[in-house]
Specification:
This protein is α/β, with parallel strands linked by helices. Helix content is 32%, strand content 24%. The strands form 2 sheets. It has a 6-stranded parallel beta sheet, sandwiched between helices. The chain has a 4-stranded antiparallel beta sheet with strand order 7-8-10-9. About 5% of the residues have low confidence. One of its GO terms (cellular component) is plasma membrane. Part of a potassium transport system.
Length: 218
């Protein structure tokens, strides 16, 4: 898949790196010169300019992109980038800070596909690390969508099954798999699950318990 990321700050850089490691094509849009140079040094294609400017974004070839992420620290730039991206058929993901007023959130939420809160993700990750356990809620990507990782225990009903054959709710999806200390990658259709493996999932809040039982057993 091909993604356009606006902003190469803390959130944008990490998102771009993960997508690239998973084999996706990433184009960055950034107007701060030293960030542009860092992104280029990291091997990314970079369009230098204001991410809220349509002529700048068009240089990133939005028509061939699957999604655009407005991930700067300025929600106005992020929102403008998302709106331009939607005009070109892109899925839109908007970053805002958690302290924005409810009416501001509602204004943005009506027009974009997803809203993310980096602060909330960080807090949830810290909580997970402190609590431990097999089924870890890394963070809430949106009001209803959660990112989770699962360590498959001995005796799990999915041990020995192929990833594609695991019967999950329609709203849940395994998007990465790792064995032992190996990095997590997108699983192949025939990848078999073994005890000790880790899988990463996107799951809606109301199906978390069903997914937990499917992967961990009763």
């Amino acid at each position: 898949m091909r993604f356009v990321i606006v902003g190469y700050g803390r959130v944008g850089a990490r998102t771009a790196r993960i997508l690239k490691e998973e084999g996706h094509e990433v184009v960055l849009v950034e107007n701060v010169r030293d960030k542009v140079e860092r992104a280029q040094k990291a091997g990314f294609e970079v369009v230098e300019g204001d991410g809220s400017n349509e002529s700048v974004l068009q240089k990133a070839d939005l028509d061939s992109a699957d999604a655009i992420g407005g991930l700067t620290g300025d929600p106005n730039i992020n929102f403008a980038a998302c709106m331009i991206g939607k005009e070109h058929g892109c899925r839109s993901v908007l970053r805002i800070d958690e302290d924005y007023r409810k009416e501001i959130y509602e204004q943005y939420a009506e027009d974009v596909d997803e809203i993310i809160y980096p602060e909330r993700l960080g807090a949830a990750g810290a909580k997970t690390a402190l609590l431990g356990g097999n089924f870890n809620a890394i963070g809430e990507l949106t009001e209803r969508l959660r990112l989770s990782t699962v360590t498959i225990p001995d005796g799990s009903p999915v041990v020995g099954r192929r990833v594609n054959d695991i019967d999950l709710p329609q709203s849940a999806r395994i998007y990465a798999h790792g064995r032992g200390r190996e990095p997590m990658t997108i699983p192949l259709p025939g990848t078999q699950v073994e005890a000790g493996d880790q899988v990463a999932l996107l799951v809606e809040r109301d199906t978390v318990e069903t997914v937990r039982k499917t992967l961990l057993g009763d």
